[in-house]
Amino acid sequence: MLRLTNQLLPVLLTLMASASILVSLATGVSQAADTPQVIVHKTPTCGCCTKWVDHLRAQGLSVEVVTVNSTRAIQADAGVPRELGSCHTAVVGEYFVEGHVPADLVQKLINEQPEGIRGIAVPGMPAGSPGMESPRPVAYDIIAVATDGQLLRYATRMGKSAE
Q: Is 8 inside a domain boundary?
């Protein structure tokens, strides 16, 4: 039986870490593979939805697009309150993401996985939100929907100008 001494333990741990890195590189597995995919439901003619998907992908999120004739059924199934409905609905893990939510807040939702929250939404289509860049951007709220139906301010952002 091999006894690990204080001198051998650090060497063994280093070798194990190196082997894990090599296996990850060889198989193409990375930390990003652990991030859930964002599944975006959108209608075929929505251009701002496509821009929002591009925004998410540019920030490193994995996105699948599902084209639907209407997002109403998806919104109802996900628990999106009607007054927060927008032009596209995403599902990521157990949460919904409704409308033009900034990618960093989608990532925050994924990372933190807050209990008691069903999802987050940007109601309407505020000028300057991701995918809705505008010469006259406005400040807008990102709303969290609690499991009890309560609406809470998750964040506030200033929109971005069109480039």
A: no
